Amino acid sequence: MDGKTLARIGAVVFVALAVTATAIDMNRSDAGPETATDKPPTIVRHDPLDDQLARCALAGEAGAHDPQCLKAWADNRRRFLGATPVPDQTSSDRPEVR
Fold first, then answer.
1. Of 47, 59, 62, 90, which is the most exposed, with the fewest CB atoms less than 10 Å away?
2. Distance CA 97, CA 2 (A)
3. What is the pTM of this model?
4. What is the chain's pLDDT, residue by residue, as a tens digit (98 residues)?
5. Is the distance from CB of 77 to CB of 69 less than 8 angstroms?
6. What is the DSSP letter of 40?
7. DSSP at 7
């Protein structure tokens, strides 16, 4: 038997195994979708910041000058980046660096 024939037989066997595995997987009976009692209920909390950000997005160019939008975007950045607000360091108790 030459190499070409052996390669063709190997390819046919591989395809046959793939078709058989697919047929077996398609005929397997699953337990079905989960019911509502199988998993705990999901609690969805409404965030007022989302409403403010949506309003600012709809405002377009005017949102860039609106103080409420600027505050909402700053709060969103702080929440996203996990940064804590930096205290105002304009007071005179700060040591002078030379």
1. 90
2. 85
3. 0.41
4. 788 999 999 999 999 999 999 999 888 876 566 565 667 767 777 888 899 999 999 998 998 899 999 999 999 999 889 876 566 555 555 555 55
5. no
6. P
7. H
